[in-house]
Amino acid sequence: MSFQLNVFKYALDSQWPSRIMMLFTIWVGSSFSFLYADTSEEVIEEYQIKSVYLFNFANFFTWPASAFRQANQPFRICVLGQNPFGIDLDLVVEGEDVEGRRVTVHRIRTLRSSSVCQMLFVSQSQQANLSRILSYVRRYPILTVSDIENFAIRGGMVQFFNSVNNEVRFKIAPETVRKVNLIASANLLEIAQIVHRR
Amino acid sequence: MVNVMMKKFNIYFLGWLQLFLLSLVLVASPVCSGAVDSSALSAEKLKKRAALLKRLKKLNLKELGTIQFFNPEATSAARTKRNLLDTAGALFVISSEDIRRAGITSIPEALRLAPGVQVGRVYADRWAISARGLNNLNSSKLLVMIDGRTIYTTRNASVHWNVQDILIEDIDRIEVIRGPGASLWGANAVNGIINIITKKAKQTQGNLLTTRLGIGEETAIVGVQHGGEIAKNAHYRVYGKLYEHDNFVDVQGEDAEDNWQMQRGGFRMDWDASKRNAFTLQGDVYDGFTKETKNLPNEGAATRTLTNDHGYLKGFNLLARWQHNLTNGDIILQSYFDWTKRNIFLVKEIRGTYDIDFQHRWQPNAQQEYIWGLGFRHVYDEFEQNHHSGFYDPLERQDNLFSAFMQAEFKLLSKSSSTSKVGSDLLRLTLGSKFEHNDYTGFEYQPTARLMWTPTEQHSAWAAVSRAIRVVTRAEEDWYEDGWLNSDLRFKFFGTHDLKSEVVTAYELGYRFTLSNRFLLDTSLFYNDYDQLRTYETRDIILSPLPPTVVVSSDSLMDGETYGIELAAQWQATKNWRLVATYSYMDMHLHLLPNSTGVISEATDEGNTPHNQATLRSLLTLSPNWEFDTALYYVDNLPSQHTPNYTRFDVRLGWQPQPDLTLSLGAKNLFDNQHPEFGSGHGANNEVPGEVQRAFYLQVNYQF
Q1: Which of residues 502 through 531 in chain B touch A, CB cutoff 8 A?
Q2: Is B662 helix (H, G, I), strand (E, B) or coil?
Q3: Cis peptide upstream of residue A17 (ω within 30 degrees of 0)
Q4: In B407-478, which residue ranges form alpha helices assigned H by DSSP?
Q5: Distance CA B674, CA B251 (A)
Q6: Banded model confidence at residue B83, pLDDT cuts 50, 70, 90
Q7: What backbone torsions phi and psi does residue A89 show, to the nearest 5 degrees?
Q8: Which range, of A28-37, A136-145, B290-299, B499-508, averages the lowest pLDDT?
């Protein structure tokens, strides 16, 4: 650091064309010193946080027995529409189980294939089809999650939203959850913003 | 008057209609879909991601809700929203949080937070502000916008900062770009662009009462705001604000009698009519007075009299914007009208600006992006002479500006990472140019070439070469002034009609380094080559009648170079403690051409810009309810202004006793009684500047 200060002092004293060269050298030098700095800390992305939330929800809701047709059926998390998670959701559930059931991730293209899911994440790409999707899954014990705006008001169950500080929070519509015989844990409801549909 | 107004509205309306029709054609034009690039992650990256997710999984739900994800966004540099790390330009974003915690109450003062920007207060209501040098009381090379409305005056290309205000709580962010951005934004974006972006109406729902009482700077600021919902997806806010500023002091510590006051009100409405269409309508009105002491020449005598007088300022603006989202791009059509009336020392001025701006962004595939646009601006003004010493000829004038721009962006190389959103392309080239025709200098072109290199998610570097111009202004062409330089020398100044625009060719380099959202370093290096800089030339010396008269007029007989380095670092030291530091160094070398008889030497202009500037801010959250923030500003001396260097120390204590109530107690310039920031300028100047003193304030914000 003191070396750089000395160089800087020299830069200020010398004539201006060489000063430019000097400033350039300092700039390149300081830039490269950061290239070798510790880069072990990764960037946390929005959908990495959301994928962890999804997995957590599996533990904070209770599904009715009717949700599973077979005893060893896996717990299925489905993503409808364009997948915003990349590989992160798969990484999160890898090797995990919920109440003895293996957790699996499915990317589904058609609404009909959602009937076997326990949790359905509706991607933002499906915004235009939202009403149709929600009225279809209403018949099944499926936890619906999305980050589409007004999702909970429009009949969804859990809606992600971002705080002004770029934190991911969520809202829950408890009445919608109850209608399909899902039970949300009290701990979850305490943290969530509660939405009542009128 | 009404008739004239109607005629002007007709011109305006026709322009709007044509562009509207054009945009319809564009909406109908076919757009093809882009390919999604998908490639595998390397095994090492995968391991890292899995490890990070594992750490996140260990958190309970409450903790998970406090994890910040990485998302610094900016629109100005590229005219479209984009990550800060992804911008091939010297960008610095001042957030609403930065403004609040630095205890800042006005737009010009907020600019101190950015590196490479020179801010000097001259009076309580006037600032000398520039970026990368060539600063002066009427510095002319910044393009400043509020929500896309250009706010520098076409009279002399400077900004009347005292009328440019809004409710400070409504500012979402201020994007400060040093260096030219003219290829997209047009003339005057020579040394920098300042884009003030306000919050959407949806973000300011409910009621807000904000009160600030103080001494030294603002004596009182009272703001009231109401935000509500008109219909589903349609929100509005209305606000009113009273702003009262205290006197500065003169060198002896006596009142400089430059206190001022502004009342203003405004609204904003946002309507997201559908997924594809969004409308915004917004406007403000203001009215107020300023007081300044001037050293004005007496008629027919070699004497000057110190005069303290009121200036009366009022105006309004109205802006409408329509955004239409296409399958792979969007169209924005925006139009505004801005009217201002200034009754100040030498002249009374009315100025109206109609502007219509259209842009189309088109992304045919993941490798290419095109933006192009058209613009039309009509400016009219009317002057009345207030003082015998100066006037405009002609007193009324109308000018038109036609502009077009296009920019293409190509991803030259892509990386093999599909999931990361930051810097997924390795090398990106941007080429573009603005073309415009104005009534002062005719046709102008302003091209740029930018290269962005993102080798890893942590590092990015960019380089740019751009040409930008500062168009000749009304004052340079049409201003006449008569006076006495001293007791035995008169001067006569007259405007010149064949002036050329000031030109810069800028060479820039930048580098950014980031460690998640914990640490960010942003550095840039610039070399600006200026041509045809404004000079004041001696044309003639008339010996009789005595005393002799020097005849002066403006010309473009100076060139020069500026160069420097700018650093900005942000460090989230702990969860509750953030540090922000900036440093900039720059130097200027100006040269009058051999045929110049300039009355102002190169050294005078060179000595108006500090070599070194630095800031260090600490934002400490003591507990969920208490904040303690400090800021240190250092500015080097200005030899031409006889202003010594100064260090300013600000401190603020914030308390939130309940969620809807926040209190701030603060001091500015705590360790100094008073200091000048910008002096009296050139020798024959009329200005009598004031000095900044120690200030204290108490602010209470109540939401209900």
Answers
A1: 509, 511, 513-518, 521, 523, 525, 527
A2: strand
A3: no
A4: 474-478
A5: 9
A6: low
A7: -65, -40
A8: A28-37
Q: Are A164 and B65 in contact (CB under 8 A)?
A: no
What pLDDT digit, counting tens, does each position of B270-298 carry? 998 887 889 999 999 999 999 888 777 77
Q: Cβ B525–A168 below 8 Å, yes or no? A: no
B42/A contact by beta carbon, under 8 A? no
Residue B585 with chain A: CB contacts under 8 Å: 23
Of A19, A30, A43, the CB nearest to B523: A30
CA–CA distances in Å: residue B304 to residues B183, B599, B694 = 46, 21, 32
Domains in chain A (CATH in brackets) are 2-35 (no CATH), 46-194 (3.40.50)
Question: How far apart (Å, rounded) are the C-alpha atoms in residues B114 and B361?
Answer: 29
- A54 backbone dihedrals φ, ψ, rounded to 5°: -55, -45
8 Å CB contact between B259 and B246? yes
- Is the domain spanning B68-703 CATH 2.40.170.20? The answer is yes
Task: Give the position of tokens 């001022």.
Answer: B260
Quote the pLDDT of residue A53: 95
* ipTM for the assembly: 0.79
Three-class secondary structure assignment of A106-131: EEECCCHHHHHCCEEEECHHHHHHHH
Give the closest residue to A103 by CA, choosing from A141, A146, A148, A57. A57
Q: Could you report the per-residue pLDDT of A67-109, keeping only the tens digit for each?
A: 888 888 899 999 998 889 988 999 999 989 888 899 999 999 8
Phi, psi of B333 (to 5 degrees): -120, 125
Q: Name the token pair of B534.
A: 């404004």
Residue matched to tokens 């038109």:
B400
Nearest CA in chain A to B57: A52
Q: Report how far residue A148's alpha carbon sits from residue A156's, in angstroms, rounded to the nearest whole number.
A: 10
Q: Is the pLDDT of residue B245 over 90?
A: yes
CB–CB contact B53 A52 (8 Å): yes
